[in-house]
Design a protein that fits this description.
Blueprint: E1 10-12, E2 23-32, E3 35-44, E4 47-57, E5 60-71, H1 76-86, E6 96-106, E7 111-119, H2 127-130, E8 166-167, H3 168-179, H4 183-188, E9 192-197, E10 203-209, H5 212-225, E11 235-238, H6 244-252, E12 257-260, H7 266-274, E13 278-284, E14 287-292, E15 297-298
Parallel strand pairs: 1-6, 4-7, 8-15, 11-12, 12-13
Antiparallel strand pairs: 2-3, 4-5, 6-7, 9-10, 9-11, 13-14
Helix pairs in contact: 1-5, 5-6, 6-7
Length: about 325
């Protein structure tokens, strides 16, 4: 947990401006039953980003590359902070002196493809103990981890069952509120969205990215570097499915509830049950499935007793 007076890091906003290109126009051939025709289409930009950490080992300053991820340019400093925070490397904003994009502007996005995170002298990182391989891709954030035993971030604790509750009617309205702020998705149809909501259904922040975990890292990184974590009064909305890694990122940030448009994985549900996270999936057409934590959803229709009726996910 962060202290109220924690010093916030300096973020050099080289990639947070709205003017950064996040999509590119390309010529395609549209084929239908009536024939084919050339037309212009817009695609989400996907480019590599290297996250480097500059840290002190005794009196000696060192630099280490910890991740290469495929992302949509923009909010790269938030992505780096969110990744390091949810991996357990960063614990407080005071651990960070500065986050800055470095290197030449490259690619369609014309942004630096490296972000350097300068740690404070007091910040300690036990690199050997982490035993993680941090290479990730836009489709799967955990596929590069060294082993299943290394997946879980150390020091995680169950979320309190008290506090956060939301009305079922508000849950059904979340997707529409997020879609209204997904400008790049409207252009391309190719980006994932992640958003934070209050218990009253008020939208706090939205981030988009070609990768699910990148969108969440950008979202949580923005809160982390602003000193707003833990997010015990927030709900995390996901435009796609809920994987183990995304549930774990929410857990690290202290988020008590996750609502996903798609399905959760079995491991995601197991993690939610273990740490008291309310996990909701298949939010569409005014209905949804609660996989765990129904006590946080206010609805007179919710039945807590086991049912023999088959749950329909389609």
């Amino acid at each position: 947990m962060q202290t109220p007076n924690a010093k916030l890091p300096v973020v050099s906003p080289k990639t947070t401006a709205s003017v950064i290109a996040k999509s590119v126009e390309m010529q395609v051939t549209r084929v239908s039953d009536s024939g084919s025709q050339p037309l212009a289409d817009r695609l989400a930009i996907e480019e590599p980003l290297e996250i480097r950490v500059e840290f002190f080992e005794g009196e000696e300053k060192k630099s280490k590359s910890v991740s290469i991820t495929m992302r949509t340019p923009g909010h790269d400093e938030e992505l780096a902070a969110g990744f390091l925070f949810t991996e357990g490397i960063l614990r407080s904003p005071s651990d960070v002196i500065e986050i800055i994009g470095c290197g030449p502007n490259t690619g369609a996005g014309q942004t630096p493809n490296t972000v350097k995170v300068r740690l404070a002298p007091h910040a300690s990182v036990n690199w050997p103990k982490l035993e993680r391989h941090f290479y990730s891709t836009s489709s799967c954030g955990v596929c590069g981890k060294a082993s299943l035993d290394a997946l879980e971030v150390p020091g995680l604790r169950p979320i309190s069952r008290e506090g956060f509750q939301i009305a079922a009617t508000e849950i059904s309205a979340l997707q529409g509120k997020v879609r209204a702020h997904q400008s790049v998705f409207d252009q391309t149809g190719g980006l994932h969205g992640a958003a934070l909501f209050t218990a009253k259904g008020e939208l706090l922040e939205v981030r988009e990215d070609v990768g699910r975990h990148n969108a969440v890292d950008k979202l949580l990184g923005a809160q982390f570097i602003s000193g707003k974590t833990p997010l015990s009064n927030c709900l995390l909305f996901l435009s796609g499915r809920a994987s183990f890694e995304l549930v774990q990122k929410a857990l690290v940030a202290g988020i008590p509830m996750i609502v996903a448009v798609g399905a959760p994985s079995s491991l995601a549900v197991e993690l939610a049950k273990r740490f008291n996270i309310t996990l909701v999936g298949f939010v569409r057409d005014g209905r949804f499935n609660i996989y765990h934590g129904e006590w946080r959803v206010n609805s007179p229709q919710i039945m807590t007793a086991p049912s023999t009726q088959k749950v329909c996910s389609q």
